[in-house]
Structure formats: C-alpha cells, structure tokens
Amino acid sequence: MPSVTFMRHAETVYNANKIFAGRINCELSAKGIQDTLKIPSFQKNDFDVYYCSPLKRSIDTLKLVVKGVEQFKVDDRIIEISVGDWEGKSKDSIPEELVRDYRNGTYTPPNAETTEEVDRRVTNFVTDLFEKYDKNTKILVVTHNGVMRSIKRNFVFNYENIMLSNLDCITLDENNYNYYLNNKIKNDAHEIIR
User: Fold this and answer.
1) Whole-number Å distance between alpha carbons of 181 and 188
2) Which one, of 70, 80, 65, 55, lies nearest residue 32 by Cα?
3) Residue 104 maps to which CATH number?
4) Domain coverage including residue 135
5) Number of domains comprising the chain
6) Which residues pair with 171 in a beta bridge?
7) Cα dihedral sign, 54-56-57-62
8) In three state form, how does the secondary structure of 83-149 look?
9) How far is the C-alpha of 44 from the C-alpha of 29, rounded, in Å?
10) Among the four 75, 83, 99, 132, which has the fewest Cβ within 10 Å?
11) Residue 134 gets which letter from DSSP?
12) Distances in Å between the alpha carbon of 192 and those of 123, 180, 182, 187?
C-alpha cells in the first residue's frame, strides 16, 4: 500500500484576515508565500504522484513547495468544505461556540456541507488511493483544513487537536488504512443490527 502525505495549503489572505473562505478561490498571502520558502522544499521526484484540490490556493502551494512539478492530478473530492452562509464572513462575527462545534463536526452552518458528506467524499478519495497504488508509491496531496479534519476523524487514532496550521502535514500508511477499514466494518455491522 502507498504512503500518502496530506498537506494543508499555505496561509491565504482570508486566513490572515480571519474570514471563512470555504469554496471561495482566494489568493495566498505574502506570509503564506514566504512560509513555503522556509520549509524544506520537495524535489519533483520526492513523490511519485501529486494531487491537489481544484482551488487556486492548493495549486499555488503545490507549485511553491515542490520545485519543478509539472504534472499533478486535480480531484474535486479534496476541495474545501462548503461552509454555506458563512463563506466570506469574518470568524469573529460567528458565535465562538458555533465555530467550535462546527470544527468538531457537531454543527453544520446554514446551507453548508455536512460532516457526513465531507467524510463520505474524503474517505472515498483516500480509499481509492490505497486501492489503486502499490506499497512503493509515494503520494503528496495538497488540500484544506476541512479535508484534513476528516482525515483525522477517520484515519488517525489518538489525535490531540482537530485543527491544523497552514502547511501542516499528515502521512497515512497501511496501519491508518487498516484502522479505517476496521472501524468501517464495525460501524456497518452496527447499522445492520439496528
């Protein structure tokens, strides 16, 4: 099974101004661009396959972090969560407890994508990677915080904090995938019994 590294995109102007971006196609901030220069950059042959979200901030981050990358796959399943009526709104304008509950997956903003909908598309994407590529394949996926939260909920055992900073990474291997499959089997069996 492959090794899959997920990276959150660099800081955007919306991140810097504490605005919910969701699916809005915002630009990287000057700090975000500078931050990509501070991390150890990858060479295009460090990974065998590259994926990113269709949003510009992910594509720009990939091109800044991986020097010389020309070919990558864009996949809609790893686009940021639609936050519905919150998109373009200041985070300070939303009650703190609603923001906390949203991030924990227990509240859905009006007209937004639900946690279940996000988890369904993200787990479908990850499952496809583990089923499609062999164990020697190294994959880099540049995506968003909402997708990364779904990955933590479904593939990472004993995580401490659901949130990630810009440019943070999570690497999944066979153990993470088996953890997900075992939980899925248990949940499916529980649903049948009910």
Assistant:
1) 10
2) 65
3) 3.40.50.1240
4) 3-193
5) 1
6) 5
7) positive
8) CHHHCCCEHHHCCHHHHHHHHCCCCCCCCCCCHHHHHHHHHHHHHHHHHHCCCCCEEEEEECHHHHH
9) 24
10) 132
11) -
12) 20, 18, 16, 9
Tokens in use for 167? 């440019």
Q: Which two tokens stand for residue 134?
A: 């062999």
Whole-angstrom distance, CA of residue 26 vs CA of residue 61: 12
Q: CA 126, 132, 134, 139 torsion: positive or negative?
A: negative
The residue count of the chain comes to: 194
Over residues 25-81, the pLDDT tens digits come to: 999 999 999 999 888 778 878 899 999 999 999 999 999 999 888 899 999 999 999
pLDDT for 123 beyond 90:
yes
Query: Per the structure block, which two tokens stand in for 109?
Result: 């903003």
* Beta-carbon contacts of residue 182 (< 8 Å; ≥ 6 apart): none
Question: What's at 91, amino acid-wise?
Answer: K
* 192 contacts: CB under 8 Å, gap ≥ 6: none
Strand positions, DSSP E, the chain: 3-8, 42-43, 49-52, 66-67, 73-74, 138-143, 169-172
Sign of CA dihedral 109, 114, 119, 125: negative
Which amino acid, one-letter code, is at 13?
Answer: V
Question: Which among 108, 80, 105, 81 has a CA at the least distance from the CA of 94?
Answer: 108
pLDDT in tens, 138-186: 999 999 999 999 999 999 988 877 789 999 999 999 999 999 999 887 7
* Nearest CA among 132, 189, 125 for reference residue 151: 125
The whole-model pTM stands at 0.91
